[in-house]
Design brief:
With 222 residues, this protein is an alpha/beta fold. The protein is built from eight helices and seven strands; from the N terminus they run βαβααβααβαβββαα. The protein has two domains: 117 residues, Response regulator (Rossmann fold), CATH 3.40.50; 76 residues, no CATH class. It starts with a strand and ends in a 34-residue tail after the last helix. The structure holds iron/sulfur cluster (2 copies). The site of one iron/sulfur cluster (SF4) has 15 residues, from helix 8.
Length: 222
C-alpha cells in the first residue's frame, strides 16, 4: 500500500494561513492503515488546529470529513457540498488523492497535509517499510521474491556489491543487505543456480523516467 506521514504541524499551519474556512479531508484506505490520514487523524489534527487558531487569536473554522477513497471521484463527490463551502481543502490523502481533488474541483484550493513516502507494508505495529518502487517491469520472479530495486541501496540488479558485512548493507548498517536476503531465499528454494546467470537488462522504459505512466484496459472501457 501507499505509505505516508503527516506533515509537521508548523508546515500545515503555514499552508492554511491565508484561508478562513478549511475542510480537513481524510481518506479511509492507505493513509488510514499507515496512521497518517484516516478519520482518527482528521479528528486529532482538527482539534490541534482549532486550539492553535484560538490561542493565536484567529477565528478559523475547521470542518472534518473522511471518504473511503480520495483517489476516486465518486467517493470525493459524496462530500461535494463540504468542499464547495470551504475556502481550502487540507487533504490527508496521498498525492494521488490531492491531485484527484484538484482535478475534480479546479476552482478550489487543495493543500497536502501528508508527505507521500513509499509503497510498503507494516512489519510490526507502527513500523512501515518500503517494498516496491513501482518500476513497471517486476523481476521478483528472478530474485526469490525480494526486490533489489526497492531494498538494495544501490538498486543493483546483479549483486551483492561486495560491501555488505554480517548480512547488513554497507550504506545503512541498520538494513539487511537485499542481496543477502535474495541469496538466503534462493538457497532455501534450492534455486541458487539462478545467481550464476547475469540478470538480463531491465526494461527501464516502463519506469518513471519516460514520464507519467498509464494503463489502458480496453476490455474494461465503457
Ligand atoms: S521489481 Fe519493480 S515492480 Fe517488482 S517489487 Fe521491485 S520495484 Fe516493485
Ligand atoms: S550491501 Fe547489499 S543492499 Fe547494500 S548496497 Fe550492497 S548489495 Fe545493496
Amino acid at each position: 500500500m501507499i505509505k505516508a506521514q503527516q506533515k509537521p504541524i508548523a508546515e500545515i499551519k503555514a499552508l492554511i494561513a491565508p484561508y478562513h474556512r478549511i475542510l480537513i479531508l481524510g481518506c479511509g484506505t492507505c493513509v488510514t492503515i499507515s496512521f497518517a490520514g484516516g478519520e482518527k487523524e482528521v479528528g486529532l489534527l482538527a482539534s490541534s488546529l482549532r486550539i492553535a487558531s484560538a490561542m493565536e487569536g484567529q477565528d478559523k473554522i475547521f470542518a472534518e470529513a473522511t471518504v473511503q477513497r480520495q483517489c476516486e471521484w465518486e467517493f470525493i463527490d459524496a462530500v461535494a457540498e463540504q468542499i464547495q463551502q470551504a475556502d481550502a481543502v487540507l487533504s490527508l490523502a496521498c498525492g494521488i488523492g490531492v491531485q484527484a481533488l484538484a482535478e475534480r474541483y479546479p476552482d478550489k484550493v487543495v493543500l497536502p497535509g501528508v508527505n507521500t513516502t513509499f509503497l510498503g507494508m507494516a512489519v510490526e505495529h507502527g513500523v512501515l517499510v518500503e517494498r516496491c518502487r513501482a518500476c513497471g517491469d517486476c523481476i521478483l520472479g528472478l530474485t526469490g521474491g525480494v526486490c533489489p530495486i526497492a531494498r538494495c541501496a544501490k538498486n543493483l540488479l546483479n549483486g551483492p556489491c561486495g560491501g555488505s558485512q554480517n548480512g547488513k548493507c554497507e550504506v545503512n548498517p541498520e538494513l539487511d543487505c537485499a542481496w543477502q536476503l535474495i541469496y538466503d531465499r534462493l538457497a532455501r528454494l534450492g534455486q541458487l543456480d539462478r545467481l550464476a546467470a547475469l540478470m538480463p537488462y531491465k526494461d527501464w522504459s516502463k519506469d518513471y523516467d519516460g514520464g507519467p505512466r498509464k494503463i489502458v484496459r480496453e476490455d474494461l472501457r465503457l
